[in-house]
Design a protein that fits this description.
heterodimer; A: about 160 residues; OB fold (Dihydrolipoamide Acetyltransferase, E2P); 2 domains; five-stranded mixed β-barrel; 3 helices; B: about 650 residues; alpha+beta; six-stranded antiparallel beta sheet; about 10% strand
Chain lengths: ~160, ~650
């Protein structure tokens, strides 16, 4: 096999595998990419019921209601609009009223968000970047609590 | 005083690094031996100075000197000693200091052990290595100085994030950094080779042990992080495809590819250009990992200290080294002569396939990680690429790699007989088929794909053993002869076998826990019983307790199986004093077949507790597999031929060719 043929084969293999990967990625992204929305987006009826998305905002003060079993209801707000959320399971350690969280799930026809995942991460003063940014865009003044402290964790 | 000394030492190190960047490279250009020789003492004094700075900071942490801003922000006097020490790198400034310390260690290693390197190559390597140190020392001194003082000093510190107060996480960053930074040496060698315009087998022989060492550390570092996430975060997950995790995984994938392509270059002098490119890309991915983690541009579940200003600085460092490296590559790569020719079916061919699949997998992870960022800056839409996307793209690329893996080491260099190699793997094929049938029989209601993936994992494990069995003629020669052959087997061959076996173990563990996990979330009152995966758990109640710097509520579960007592699980919910933050400590029982895992949730108004119970089958195989891979690397590293790093081509036949 000459050098030229070998190079052709190598390039062919590389291109083949790469295009396979590209097809896989397109397919995967089309199927399961999840968008992030704020309660204001929901209020403007941008989202169809049954579509999975991530809802981010603050847990409204006094809104957490424990139901029977491990069922929990609470309200997520970006201070302009609110969305009622229900969740079944154990909430993260750092879930608290006033805390920035991200919930993943679908919107019911009645405007109720049914979450199957609730993320509130790691650090008590941590706010998911999307939430912080979305809140800033809505003109909410972020207090000390929303700022990232120096040196919270390593990679 | 000691702190000022540390600060001063760090500034001196910057000056030394600046000199070391210029002088040896200039000497190599001018062929001036005295100037080239300057690199060695410079590398050693740079290491000494950075070590002084690091120890000064550590001293401040151990003695709880809260007049240092960094200590006040990240430590607390009530913390146990080990976490006061690990607190040094549990924050941004300290971890960057650790980064340059390791960088200097690798640079000094070249200065000390590189006596058989060509003088100009050594000088250029030391210069490039030092230029990386220079950039990061500037970064530390300008944007993240750990030696800043506070006046007045606070009475006590703010404390380290409680979930980082954990033994596995104490040593996770040093290992991870040794991995990241270890690849810097491969980068320096690649740049030096491009400056000189030539590379040979000796180059690969030099690069490979350091790449191997970095790869081992990165493997164990990632595994530690995954293990920590598993037991500490209380979700029972071991990998989330989170951007911060991907940031460490991409250099690992590229580094694994580099390890294998350097092998081809060392033994056959082929794939030179590709290996050089891969060395540049691997370190660039390490830098990008640092940038992604430090800049906070991506939303991660792992909160990390971020500051946009620093992010831009790290981004410029990354752009400088990646861009500079690639530009030099584009300019000089043509000058590197081509190496040996090989047929597609050969050891080289197998390693090329390995490289193509690993780098493509790395690209898919890269795209998945950066896609949300690109989409947001282009359209403003915020999305998240989650685990399903990564699984759908990554797993199909890994399957052919794993299927081909046992064949690779059995193929001869240059031209190989694939039928003969297959024949030697018949035993492995039979074992994998038996496992396939058996797992269908046991879990016929489970996901249909899982038994196939199990079989692939077992195929890799059994294939690794078959290869060694063939080499020592197990069964074809008297046992004593086989044992003698085993003892005489090159360590590198044993290391390969172990590392590949570890990969198989990891696959088995991943499939087991992903496909057959059982999970229960329920409300339990004292006296309640729950059943999961054949284990009965009786909840005895919960009681408060006091730790060194936290208070906790410990739940007690008595576990029985078929009426016989097995163990007692004590998951707890902790509230740390400083900073006041709750964490969950899972109660875990490790059985042979898997882990029983219990998490205590919130107390309900009626006195019951929300409880989360899991059974994770075979989950330990994931980390044991990583450990076996680490030991495989260590065994290979102890091979004499790697240590000697002979500059001349060995006269004896390359290892791995079956002696017949």
């Amino acid at each position: 096999m000459t050098r030229k043929q070998r190079r052709g084969l190598l390039i062919g293999l590389g291109v083949g595998v790469l295009s396979l990967a590209a097809i896989l990625m397109l397919f995967a992204f089309r199927q399961s990419i999840v968008f992030f929305h704020t309660p204001s987006d929901v209020a403007q009826h941008k989202i169809a019921p049954g579509v999975r998305f991530r809802l981010g905002g603050l847990v409204a003060d006094g809104s957490v209601v424990r139901g029977e079993g491990t069922r929990v209801g609470f309200t997520v707000t970006d201070t302009l609009s609110t969305v009622p959320v229900s969740y079944e399971g154990i909430l993260p350690d750092l879930f608290r009223e006033g805390q920035g969280i991200v919930a993943e799930g679908t919107l019911g026809a009645d405007g109720h968000f049914v979450a199957d995942t609730v993320l509130a991460k790691h650090d008590e003063t941590y706010m998911p970047p999307e939430v912080a940014k979305a809140l800033q865009e809505k003109g909410v003044k972020l207090g000390e609590g929303a700022r990232h402290p120096e040196g919270t964790a390593s990679p | 005083m000691i702190i000022e000394l540390g600060h001063f030492a760090l500034i001196l190190a910057l000056l030394v690094a600046a000199a070391q960047t210029v002088v040896p490279a200039w000497g190599a250009h001018q062929r001036d031996v005295r100037l080239m020789k300057f690199g060695e003492p410079a590398a050693l004094s740079q290491l000494a100075l950075i070590l002084i700075a690091f120890l000064a900071l550590m001293h401040a942490y151990v003695t709880s000197d809260f007049s240092v801003a960094n200590v006040a922000a990240n430590s607390h006097s009530s913390k146990p000693l080990i976490y006061r020490i690990s607190g040094v790198w549990g924050n941004h400034e300290g971890s960057m200091l650790l980064w340059v310390l390791i960088l200097a260690v690798f640079g000094a290693a070249v200065a000390v052990f590189g006596n058989n390197l060509p003088a100009t190559l050594k000088a250029n390597v030391l210069s490039v290595q030092s230029s990386i140190a220079l950039a990061f020392l500037l970064f530390i001194l300008l944007t993240s100085n750990p030696f800043e003082r506070l006046d007045p000093a606070p009475f006590d510190g703010r404390g380290l994030n409680p979930i980082l107060q954990d033994p596995a996480l104490a040593f996770h960053p040093p290992f991870l950094y040794m991995g990241y930074v270890g690849f810097s040496l491969a980068f320096s060698f690649a740049i030096a080779a491009l400056i000189e315009g030539r590379t040979d087998a000796a180059w690969a022989r030099w690069v490979r042990p350091y790449t191997l060492l970095a790869w081992m550390c990165l493997t164990i570092g990632i595994a530690m992080g995954s293990w920590w996430a598993y037991y500490e975060l209380g979700w029972g997950g071991w990998w989330f495809w989170d951007p911060v995790e991907n940031a460490s995984f991409m250099p690992w994938l590229a580094g694994t590819a580099l390890l294998h392509s350097a092998l081809v270059m060392e033994k056959r002098e082929a794939l030179k250009v590709w290996t050089i490119l891969l060395a540049i890309l691997t370190f660039s991915l390490s830098l990008m990992g640092t940038f992604l983690v430090r800049s906070g541009v991506l939303s991660s579940v792992h909160a990390v200290a971020v500051d946009p200003g620093r992010g831009v600085f790290v981004l410029s460092i990354m752009a400088l080294f990646t861009g500079g490296g690639l530009a030099l590559f584009a300019y000089r790569a043509r000058d590197l002569q081509q190496g040996g020719i090989f047929s597609p079916i050969s050891r080289e061919g197998a390693l090329v396939l390995n490289n193509v699949l690993l780098t493509t997998a790395c690209v898919t992870v890269l795209v998945g990680t950066l896609y949300p960022l690109a989409l947001e800056s282009l359209t403003g839409a915020k999305i998240s690429v989650g685990a399903p996307d990564f699984n759908m793209t990554f797993v199909p690329l890994m399957i052919p790699l794993l299927l081909a893996l046992p064949l690779g080491p059995l193929l001869a260099w240059k031209r190989a007989d694939i039928a003969a190699a297959m024949e030697r793997l018949i035993a492995a094929g039979v074992i994998a088929a038996v496992v396939l049938v058996a797992s269908f029989a046991i879990a016929w209601r489970g996901p249909w794909l899982a038994p196939f993936c199990f079989a692939v994992g077992v195929w890799v494990m059994a294939g690794a053993l078959c290869e060694t069995a063939f080499r020592i003629k197990l069964g074809n020669a008297p046992l004593a002869e086989s044992l003698r052959r085993l003892a005489n087997l090159p360590r590198a061959a044993l290391g390969t076998m172990l590392a590949h076996f570890g990969v198989g173990m990891m696959v088995v563990g991943i499939v087991g826990t992903s496909a057959y996990k059982s999970e229960e979330i329920l409300l339990m009152r004292p006296g309640d019983k729950a059943v999961i995966a054949g284990y009965e758990l009786a909840f005895r109640g919960a009681a408060p307790a006091k730790g060194p710097n936290y208070t906790e509520t410990i739940g007690v579960f008595d576990v029985t199986r078929g009426g016989t007592p097995v163990t007692r699980l004590e998951p707890s919910k902790r509230l740390y004093d400083a900073p006041p933050q709750p964490t969950s400590e899972a109660g875990i029982y490790a059985a042979w077949t898997g882990d029983l895992y219990a998490v205590l949730g919130d107390q309900q108004p009626d006195g019951g507790f929300a409880v989360r119970l899991y059974f994770h089958p075979l989950v330990r195989c994931i980390w044991l597999g990583a450990l076996v891979m680490f030991f495989g690397g260590a065994v290979s590293l102890s091979d004499r031929r790697l240590r000697v790093g002979a500059p001349r081509r060995a006269s004896r036949a390359p290892a791995g060719v079956p002696a017949e």
